[in-house]
Amino acid sequence: MTREPMLWSGWGDPARARELPEPVRALLRDLLGVRSPETPPVPLEDVRLAPVSLSAALLEELGGVVGGPHVLTSHEARVRHARGKSTPDLLLMRAGDGLDAPDAVVLPGSHEEVAELLALCARERIAVVPFGGGTSVVGGLVASRAGFAGVVALDLGRMDRLLSVDAESMVAAFEPGLRAPEAERLLAAHGLTLGHFPQSYEYATLGGFAAARSSGQASAGYGRFDDMVAGLTVATPTGTLELGRAPKSAAGPDLRQLVLGSEGAFGVITSLRLRVRRAPAEKVYEGWRFGSFAEGTAALRALAQEGPLPTVVRLSDETETMVGLAKPDAIGASGGHGADGGTGVGSGHGAHGGHAADGGHGSRSADGGHGADGGTGGSGSGGAPGGCLVIAGYEGASVAAVRAGAAAVLTRLGGEPLGEEPGRSWEHGRFSAPYLRDSLLAAGATVETLETAGFWSGLPRLYDAVRLALHGALGSPLVMCHISHVYETGASLYFTVVTAQRGDPVEQWARAKEAATAAVVEAGGTVSHHHGVGRDHREAYAAELGPVGVQILRAVKDRLDPAGILNPGVLIP
Amino acid sequence: MTREPMLWSGWGDPARARELPEPVRALLRDLLGVRSPETPPVPLEDVRLAPVSLSAALLEELGGVVGGPHVLTSHEARVRHARGKSTPDLLLMRAGDGLDAPDAVVLPGSHEEVAELLALCARERIAVVPFGGGTSVVGGLVASRAGFAGVVALDLGRMDRLLSVDAESMVAAFEPGLRAPEAERLLAAHGLTLGHFPQSYEYATLGGFAAARSSGQASAGYGRFDDMVAGLTVATPTGTLELGRAPKSAAGPDLRQLVLGSEGAFGVITSLRLRVRRAPAEKVYEGWRFGSFAEGTAALRALAQEGPLPTVVRLSDETETMVGLAKPDAIGASGGHGADGGTGVGSGHGAHGGHAADGGHGSRSADGGHGADGGTGGSGSGGAPGGCLVIAGYEGASVAAVRAGAAAVLTRLGGEPLGEEPGRSWEHGRFSAPYLRDSLLAAGATVETLETAGFWSGLPRLYDAVRLALHGALGSPLVMCHISHVYETGASLYFTVVTAQRGDPVEQWARAKEAATAAVVEAGGTVSHHHGVGRDHREAYAAELGPVGVQILRAVKDRLDPAGILNPGVLIP
């Protein structure tokens, strides 16, 4: 397994970066009015960092806990732990702003070392940022420095073992720093799988999934990550918390659900017991076309409420469908339905991932005369149908029965089968959208995603409110949306926004994001379905929770982390 | 709908009480050595109560909030709110000990009145016991008086409305004091159901289900009650908590799961948004026979892990099967498989229900020479097969496919189909076991239940440990067990114990319960799968949670209820 770090200034494996084809550049120019010249990232060595504020004596003390070689203060190590992977994060990093970088990176090797680190940092008032895959898109990896002697990133990369497999209970125990693909590889040797495939999958860690309350592209079939967590061990400054004696219990509140989504603010997850499944013998993904987003939504609702539910089920709105279908090959590495890769999901340990940048901005849709975000189902050129695309995926020992049952529901509700090609295309590109984002950023377009969830009856209002807010804030952006997570009572809405950079792009997006988030809160949705809270959603989260909810979080935080060293400024309003 | 109160000294509708048939009396004598004379409860008016410790001025203030007629201090009202429905509760009540009764019963009519009551009680240091169905079997309805001016039962019986139905989202909103059968009647008018049928169903309330983290007999199909809760409104002394903007969210920890199971110690649930389902068009329950508990357990595990999962699935061990099958008609009202009615589940508001007394002590099994609890699969007489009985129930729009799929799994793993008669018998008696308990208590036998849950690989150890502890503490009790709730990773174990009363039966059971609970903790199980914590499990719960977990509960409690008025002595260690 590779423990290769990600590209410091963007996403993923630098070898997989792709240039934007000229037709896409033309699209950006003609459709969105992108005029900026190409702006490559500064060289890594030119990134500006603040001086290390921790004394040599304190660094030595940290080394005394984890071993000297596991305390890093190099320029590169600090840059690589400076921020997460939101678009503002990338814009800042590309511009050479590494001022949020930690003073040092410490890599513990065991629960005991984590516990000892927390005790030391509490005593010395050093802020601690738990760091897994580093894929937060909500500012989950930047600690408030005020009042602290310094900030360390607690990188869990050395704690990456599969600890045990209980095949009878279908529970496997892991260390938190294991990346998802490696976890799948280790489980595959036992014929097992977690089935957790968020868009951040290739770099995210298991501990990060838990801390960020992650949800994967196959959540309809395998459940959300919180459904998979049978037990947790958590190191806190107050001591160790050991949770999960049974799948379910009536012995008080389920405190596992208090740790899940706590984003490193209550403690550091040092091991996880996760429900596993048999690796599927069959996997089929296929496409369906619906006349409108409303019709497609009704079909997904029927699957969620009446069944049978596919393993993967997602519905793109008219705009996303148009863009994605218009020219599947225009964007190279993103694999066609770029927008359909955008089920981004959290992963940073103590932070959230979710890296959906869209997406397949096929040039032909512009050629065909559709204004940005104006499409309501018209066909893109190149013979692709209009309307709204559904991807339905089936995984299991045998999928024929569920596939036939779902097909009956989809057909009854107006769906037109498109065969397996759209499914293959989605599968090919499912983790690729963040690469495309890097290319778009370089070309002077801002692309970012945001997501929410609500009950079915409230989704139309939520959908309209967010789009209206984004249009109001950005002029004529391209706003695409899909539903990628369905429940009996509701679903998520995942928006991808592309706009020309105007003025300071970080400021520009901050205003748009603020407007969209306010619209979510006002329309009754949750501020995040799977990206998390981090710093970016903290104030809106307070509005969602209300003052008594905020008091609950603060009470737990104060008791477990009285010195407030854990991820200060993240999550807790 | 009837709001008739339960029999104060026992369970349910006094008109449904039944005398034990002579063969059962003979069984108690010959098998268990029950020698006590019949002991009827004292008359209600002879129950001893402490003087009302609240001043007339305070009672008037309470009346100022809820209206004078909604503050009750009558002998009968106090007796009816004195305790829950555990066997020790009933033994004490039957003996005329009502010393745990509240000073007054207050019946608020709205969220605002609940909030105002909590403010008043916090100011005046009056302990508040939220009271729903009054069906706790874990001491969840008795507050610690130390340091308080008095104790009031906050009876939610007047808050019993269905507030709204959102058929698109399949969510219905309710007030907390609505009893489950009335909720089902109101939903049936919309073609809907909750599908939540714990043994306490006939008297338990929706708020109690939530506060007690209840689980019903059909949890395999409809989920646990915690799966059904989409949203909650909670009145706390610190203010109102409003939770649930979406089915699922990554916006921080899921605080719904902190309220569920909080047993009234954090606040009073004043409304609930619950996921509903379409009322099933078909219902079929059937029996299967397995050679041993281990074989039956393997079959249930396969259903839970590979599917398809029936709506109801339960497995009795050899002893429970023998007793239940031996003479289905011997016990009258309990409907045959008395033991199979014992899926008792919580319900008291801020407290837990679960009322499984067993069960069908058919005389023939004694006649057939089986010692108490000694059967390991031998046939009861009367032609009934030995081994272990599985009840599988199927509910839905159409059940044939799931039924056939489950039958294939059960057959492959050694099951022998017994047809629908055992299913009908189970259905007939599913809520009746508590009535039988009353008759057995009157006859001088102690019958009580306890339950736990664990992961599949740990169940044999848990099963053995609990049985060993009960035998050690009680000499030669009859100990029966069933699995009634299954998950992919584990299951519950539900024990029913029948023993002759020796000495003070309350003390006798307390020692046995302490031994059994210690065995559960030692063997790695949870102290309760669906009965809850109450006062009875509080110390063992602390051992299960560990000191950091206890600190979390205390932190939340201190912040939400700084005066500590809510259910003092319950839940929080």
Automatic annotation (TrEMBL), chains A, B:
One of its GO terms (molecular function) is alkylglycerone-phosphate synthase activity. Its cofactor is FAD. Residues 98-279 form the FAD-binding PCMH-type domain. The keyword Transferase applies. It holds the Pfam family FAD_binding_4. GO terms for biological process: lipid biosynthetic process. The keyword Flavoprotein applies. Its EC number is 2.5.1.26. This is Alkyldihydroxyacetonephosphate synthase.
